[in-house]
Amino acid sequence: MDYSGAIRLLSEAIAASGVKKVIFVSSISVYEETKDFKIYTEDAEPNATSVSGREIISAEKIMLQNPIFDTTIIRFGGLIGAGRHPLKYLAGRSALGNPLGPVNLIHLRDCKQVIKKVLQKDLFGEVYNAVYPLNPPREKYYQEKAREAGLEIPEFDHSKASEGKIISASKVMRELEVDFQEKI
């Protein structure tokens, strides 16, 4: 079964259960990467063209459009923490693409804080982008993290144009009053 089909079944089950409020954890992959590093806020229409991105967009719509319960969508960036970090897959590699592409990560502790604030403030029927508020270039970020960790420095290829997106966390910081605790 496809992802959005599974979410449709989940939505129906939630509606039948009597649950009235749902937090749906989604992904910033609903936004397309561009050569000019477009800045996306929650007001931007999701525009992913990949199959998985379109499936996630469809799943979000299914959850938001169910009239039986209120859904808040939280679009998290790349997850780090609890032993998880993309540097593990990049350390020591060469000819990596997209050196100037912005990094959009969030620490697990900050993910928990975002969810907790939605619950505490009872903010449902909303969409939030949740990433650490700074978006350094991939090359600079991963090379610095490799040095800090004592790992082999990844090398990037500058022969192709970089693409990416900058995800704004301003709504999370403003409405949820999230103070990001974990520097990426």
TrEMBL record:
> Any signal peptide, and if so, which residues?
none
Q: What is the name attached to this protein's record?
A: NAD dependent epimerase/dehydratase family protein
Taxonomic placement: Bacteria, Pseudomonadati, Bacteroidota, Flavobacteriia, Flavobacteriales
| SUPFAM superfamilies named among the record's database cross-references | NAD(P)-binding Rossmann-fold domains
Q: Which organism is it from?
A: Salinimicrobium oceani
Q: Which domain of life is it from?
A: Bacteria
